[in-house]
Design goal:
The chain is an alpha+beta fold. 51% of the residues lie in helices and 13% in strands. It has 4 domains: 73 residues, no CATH class; 230 residues, no CATH class; 167 residues, no CATH class; 198 residues, no CATH class.
Length: 915
């Protein structure tokens, strides 16, 4: 045991360098040489002859020293610093090579680090709740189900309900529209998050007659109250009701959106719609639950449907208050920030239970992973390019390697030196890449569309830095291991006998440089895969842009009208009057060509549809569950004119379609095409409201969510005729006059928006307007996600093409420089410039064709992952698979032509003289 400890200590000393051992070794070698020299002198040799004979008999001193160091454990630290210093010297001596290599690696490492920072924030970072892996969500549940599950479900430790709403904050400054989270009392305990100041809701406050309280977000607290800790207990006017502030949430806390404040859902619903027995309704909620330790998701999925099917008594009355708790989801435009992936309801009564984390990221995971894979391809292309540069450089250094081998350096020592230089390049490229990644991550966040959960939290944190360090190490090894192994195979005798590196037999045969063409082929194949993917995405995006919009967005300003429910209850004459007065005032503004009200704008999320078992009067009903889903849209007479929606037949609504007029409706083209394929729909009655309206017109199709979604069945109703419907909010669309530079000073949509705000404030100063957006911006936002994906994939493909082009140029240029003597001989024997040009270009084209062939095969297999991201484009689109290879061949031709052109200008006399 003591022997092994001593050996370990000796090796540790050798690892960090032992100067005393070195001196002892030198003294011992010197003693041996002196003794041998003295013996030969005694045998009659001269002093010089004896010293030479002693050295010959003793052997290579350098090799013996290296062998001794190997036996003592190798001084890794010492030799590494030696290699690093020498490597830095060599890199400084070749600034052009160093710059190109570092820039190439910086592009690859920076791109993959930037994308990983987003992937880390969105997909990998744990949710900021206690034990987030035990949190599940049941989207689109009903309040009644929630109450039963909370009482009877055995799979859960805690359960809470959540919905989103919109409230108006008044009483301190201008009225402000805020996003409200409507939550049950147990939500914060279920998530495992406590308020930073104050307390959470109590069960008594989460009842119909509970005290009016509110919890603020940290951002609202800082913005409206200057981070004043004394705000707890202060009153706040929300929807014209005084509420007491009881808590402030921690910085950065958010849940299913960017809520500004949180309200007890039961009390809020009571104030909004009244109690259920008084006409209020039970709408949907999202149920958040924490699984018990050891409980599986499958067990929870099996438990909840059983409770639903028991059909027990209605929700129990609250024994403390003697009232029924009612649960709703708030206004119809609720929670535009509630970005969860809600699967459709199952017709067989099954309950959808999914992990909370999965509900937040499932809709963005495929696109992010595809982008990450694309960047990984870019990094591999960069590694192959740098490996090509290092291989070419190692050929120039063959004589240096031969001399080092002759004086005792082994293959491992030579390979380690070159590998250290590759790692130095990777480290410098990684440092530059980190700077690029910091800027690139900010650019990605700025470019990203709304709805990608937690993308704004992207940063170069410890995990990202660790990932970058790993990438730098792997990149250095991938780029340097092949050149290091090739250079370490140097033939000492052949290389030193040669008069020059260019004239050596090994150089003429190509030596260890056969890997250069192989790496170039790999670069081209990888670049082609990325280019084909980008080409498919670009074509898909162009198809989206070419879809008929069905409306004219130019010069149209839109804004949302949402009067508070306390002052303007749904279905009430006061609410209808507010909408009418706002419309009349805006129509009277100078610079307004037309204005109209609508429940749902094109490309606006939030439309409500009705499942119809009976749709058209006089026709048989549909089988249960097979009826059409109809979007009902309440509009004012000038809405079609304002939006530029064309009437295909019949007439639009007019001012005569008032409360006392016969009930009328307009359908879109999709309904006419589907349900009236061989007859005129005008005059038919629809069973979508009571009394049933008569169809008086057919309007052009518009899309409600996105261009890549199908056109839905849409029925337009005059909002005055059906004011009994729950018209929570309406959107006002305003088309500016064609002559924007009018004499009244309204010269832009911005000034028009200000004038509209003034008019609505004149009706009621406590009622704000919000979502003031022009239709061009809405149109752009609807394409934001597709544009983001296409732009990034195209950018990465472009980077790959640039790197591959540099690689082609470098390989062909190096081949020309190695064959200067041969080219000079050919020209001397009568070869024309065209012959030399074709010879060099054909070499590049031959490699390009091989790379393109392999790339096409890989693209056919790999582009299938893009299937869900493409719109009306096949993953094997013939045009893309034909044009992209031609583009790559053309770029390769240009990259080959430049060195080929230089080869035609070789002076044969100078080439032969140099040889």
């Amino acid at each position: 045991m003591i022997h092994y400890l001593r050996e370990l200590a000796a090796r540790l000393r050798g690892l960090f360098g032992d100067r005393r051992a070195e001196r002892e070794l030198d003294d011992e070698i010197e003693t041996h040489l002196r003794l041998l020299t003295e013996r030969y002198v005694r045998q009659g040799m001269s002093e010089a002859e004896a010293a030479r004979a002693a050295r010959l008999q003793f052997g290579n001193v350098t090799l013996l020293k290296e062998a001794n160091r190997e036996m003592r454990g190798i001084r890794l630290i010492d030799t590494f610093f030696q290699d690093a210093r020498y490597g830095l010297t060599m890199l400084r001596r070749n600034p052009g090579f160093t710059f190109v290599a570092v820039l190439t690696l910086a592009l690859g490492i920076g791109a993959i680090t930037a994308i990983f920072s987003v992937v880390n924030a969105v997909l990998l970072r744990p949710l900021p709740y206690r034990d987030p892996d035990r949190l599940v969500i049941v989207p689109n549940a009903e309040g009644r189900d929630f109450l039963r599950w909370r009482e009877q479900a055995k799979a859960f430790e805690k359960m809470a309900a959540y919905s989103g709403g919109v409230v108006i904050l008044t009483g301190s400054g201008e009225p402000e529209r805020l996003e409200a989270g409507l939550v049950s009392a147990d939500l914060f305990a279920t998530l495992g998050v406590a308020p930073a100041l104050g307390r959470a809701f109590s069960p008594q406050e989460d009842t119909v007659v509970g005290a009016p309280v509110v919890i603020l977000s940290n951002s609202l607290w800082r913005r409206r109250f200057g981070s004043d800790p004394q705000v707890i207990g202060r009153a706040l006017t929300i929807d014209n009701q005084s509420r007491t502030i009881i808590g402030i949430m921690p910085p950065g806390f958010r849940f299913l959106g960017n809520s500004d404040l949180w309200l007890p859902i039961a009390h809020y619903v009571t104030q909004l719609l009244g109690r259920e027995e008084d006409g209020g309704g039970v709408i949907g909620v999202s149920v958040i639950a924490r699984l018990k330790p050891g409980m599986t998701l499958e067990a929870a999925r099996a438990n909840l449907p059983v409770i639903r099917e028991r059909k027990q008594q209605p929700p129990r009355r609250d024994a403390r208050e003697g009232s029924v708790t009612v649960w709703v989801s708030g206004p119809r435009d609720r929670a535009p920030a509630q970005q969860i992936n809600e699967p459709p309801k199952r017709a067989d009564g099954q309950v959808t239970v999914i992990w909370l984390r999965e509900s937040l990221i499932d809709n963005v995971r495929p696109a992010l992973l595809i982008l990450f894979g694309a960047v990984l391809f870019v990094l591999l292309i960069a590694c192959a390019n740098v490996a090509n540069l290092l291989l070419a450089r190692s050929a120039v250094r063959q004589k240096e390697m031969a001399i080092r081998a002759a004086v005792g350096a082994g293959r491992l020592r030579l390979a380690r030196q070159l590998l250290t230089e590759s790692l130095l390049l990777s480290v410098v490229g990684g440092a530059a890449g980190l700077l690029a990644a910091k800027w690139g991550a900010k650019l990605l966040v700025a470019m990203s569309p709304d709805g990608i959960e937690r993308i704004k939290e992207s940063s170069l944190d410890g995990r990202v830095l660790g990932f970058t360090c790993l990438i730098v190490l792997l990149t250095g090894l991938l780029a340097g291991v092949l050149p290091a192994l090739q250079a370490s195979k140097v033939d000492v005798n052949e290389t030193l006998k040669a008069q020059s590196t260019a004239g050596s037999a090994r150089s003429r045969r190509g030596g260890g440089l056969r890997a250069l063409p192989a790496l170039m082929i790999a670069e081209l194949a990888l670049a082609l895969v990325l280019l084909v993917g980008a080409g498919l995405m670009i074509k898909s995006f162009l198809r989206l842009l070419a879809i008929p919009k069905g409306f004219n967005p130019d010069g149209v300003l839109t804004l949302r009208l949402s009067p508070t429910h306390n002052n303007y209850p749904p279905r009430s004459p006061q609410r209808i009057f507010y909408f009418q007065e706002a419309l009349a005032r805006v129509q009277a503004l100078p610079g307004v060509q037309s204005a109209g009200l609508t429940g749902f704008l094109p490309l606006a999320v939030g439309s409500v549809s009705l499942e119809q078992d009976r749709f058209i009067e006089g026709r048989p009903p549909f089988s249960p569950g097979t009826g059409p889903s109809i979007v009902l849209n309440h509009i004012s007479p000038d809405y079609f004119q304002t939006m530029g929606i064309q009437m295909r037949s019949g007439r639009p609504f007019t001012a005569n379609d008032g409360r006392e007029a016969p009930r009328v409706a307009i359908i879109n083209e999709t309904i006419a095409r589907q349900f009236f394929p061989h007859e005129d729909p005008i005059g038919h009655r629809l069973l979508v409201a009571s009394p049933a309206p008569t169809i008086v017109g057919v309007a052009g199709d518009t899309r409600h969510s996105a261009f890549d979604r199908r056109v839905r069945y849409e029925v337009y109703l005059p909002f005055l005729q059906y004011s009994g419907f729950e018209l929570f909010d309406l959107t006002l669309a305003v088309r500016g006059a064609s002559d924007q530079n009018n004499s009244d000073g309204i010269s832009s949509l911005a000034s028009l928006a200000a004038a509209i705000r003034n008019q609505t404030q004149a009706i009621d100063p406590n009622e704000p307007v919000y979502q003031v957006v022009n239709m061009d911006e809405r149109l752009s936002n609807s394409l934001a996600e597709r544009r983001f994906q296409t732009l990034l994939l195209g950018l990465f493909a472009g980077i790959a093409l640039v790197i591959a082009t540099v690689g082609i140029y470098g390989v062909i240029s190096y081949a020309v420089s190695r064959r200067t003597h041969e080219i000079g001989v050919r020209i001397a024997l009568g070869a024309q410039a065209g012959d030399v040009l074709r010879m060099v270009i054909w070499r590049g084209m031959r490699l390009t064709l091989v790379g393109v062939t392999l790339g096409l095969a890989a693209a056919l297999a790999l582009t299938r992952v893009l299937k869900n991201l493409l719109f009306e484009v096949s993953v094997t689109d013939p045009a893309t698979f034909a044009l992209i290879p031609l583009l790559l061949v053309a770029v390769a031709l240009i990259a080959s032509y430049i060195p080929a052109r230089r080869a035609t200008k070789v002076d044969p006399l100078q080439a032969l003289r140099d040889e």
